[in-house]
Amino acid sequence: NAGVTQTPKFRVLKTGQSMTLLCAQDMNHEYMYWYRQDPGMGLRLIHYSVGEGTTAKGEVPDGYNVSRLKKQNFLLGLESAAPSQTSVYFCASSYVPGTYGYTFGSGTRLTVV
Amino acid sequence: GESVGLHLPTLSVQEGDNSIINCAYSNSASDYFIWYKQESGKGPQFIIDIRSNMDKRQGQRVTVLLNKTVKHLSLQIAATQPGDSAVYFCAENNQGGKLIFGQGTELSVKP
Question: How far off is chain A from B11, nearest CA to CA, in Å?
């Protein structure tokens, strides 16, 4: 099925460990986004990309890095995980922002202990 | 501003009743608005959208109303069903190339 696929779905990390979350979309969307969602809060934008090879900071970028080497993939990296990064992470993609909505993945639940 | 650590606003309705979920947006220059539904353990799903040149848009069992004067958006769900139980988010395009999401409202449907 077409859409946005996130891997892994669940992960537990120890403080200081690193990991990469993978987002893949097969809709040929130019724009991709990484959000985090914490209890009682809305979606907060971490980083986004407006095309292959480009990335930009969102609202809460500290502690994260991203790469968009291929148009269909958007990677989110945590170099040294902290308990404050325990959250549910969502990837999304879209055509031109403001013209169409985003298509979201099903999320990655990350726990940092 | 953002509220940290508070519970989501909750709306509880009886099955078969109509539901109205409200949202205040922040930027008077925003020109595109979307409602998303998020079921437990899933990503947000698109429900309906509306552009700023419209006041009302209808879908299947859902209607979105836009009041630009007071920067208010509402989602009306007709004949609410148990499957409508979820968290509902509004989002605005603030012309910065990104959608800004509201905190969300949790809809609970009582059978």
Answer: 14
